[in-house]
Amino acid sequence: MKNIVFFLLLLMIFRIDAQESQFNYLGTLLLSNNTPISFSIHFNEENGVINGYSLTNIGNPDETKSDISGMYFKKDKSFQLQETQILSTSSEADLSTFCFIHTNLSFKGRLGNKRLEGDFVGFFINNDTCASGKILLMEKEKLEKKIKKVKKKIEKFEEKRATVLKTKQLKDGEDFVVKWENDNLKLFIWDANEEDGDRIRLKINDEIILYDYTTKRKRKKIKYKLKEGENIIEIKAISLGTSPPNTSRIELVDSKTKYPVITQLTLDKSVIITIMK
Known about the structure:
Strand order of the largest sheet: 1-2-3-4-5-6-7-8
Distance between the termini: 75 Å
Structural class: mainly beta
Number of helices: 2
Strand content: over 45%
CATH architecture of the largest domain: Beta Barrel
Radius of gyration: 30 Å
CATH class of the largest domain: Mainly Beta
Largest sheet: 8 strands, antiparallel, barrel
């Protein structure tokens, strides 16, 4: 019985040691003349042996997927990799003109924000040198998060740069028609004056977005996917608060334009904003 338990423990240890490590890194090849080329590597490492693939010119007409193999050196945590063959390509160039990367990569940077960096040399299929430079890579998931953050910052910057039109004032039963460019609506709503308990109901295309909502000085942000053609926004006064009428500030944000609106409503009355996409 003891021998069986000992054997099972050895088997578990062997399985743990033999587990694969998966790597997905995205970044650039920086040629010796400082020309950048999009590049990513995706591979498994098992017991120091590496197998996987690389992508070059990602999203371009010449996007190419190549087989990569190599070794991982645990002592200094470095990789020796080389592209060995073309797996697929969108390029119409002759195979003899393709450049196969040979590189040594190692981790740089602080824990949690590590990069893979190193020099590379490229070789034609006849072993003549075709390129050289540096490889700069980050973990794909982390890089995509960073890109997403940058995009958000750009969007906020663009919002600030957007053209702000003259404020439109709407009272009971009135409507307002807006021509729209973006696929999405970004709407902000807040109390135009001091908070006094004004409550509203907001519907878009008969879908209740806010029900019995008390507007506050802090802006409430709403995002909505628009349909082609006519999109109807209805704002209805549910209460008048302590200082009638029911007053709300609304800002509609398109790609490059902001539409400021003020609504002044008596009890149970509404206004309509029509967005034409």
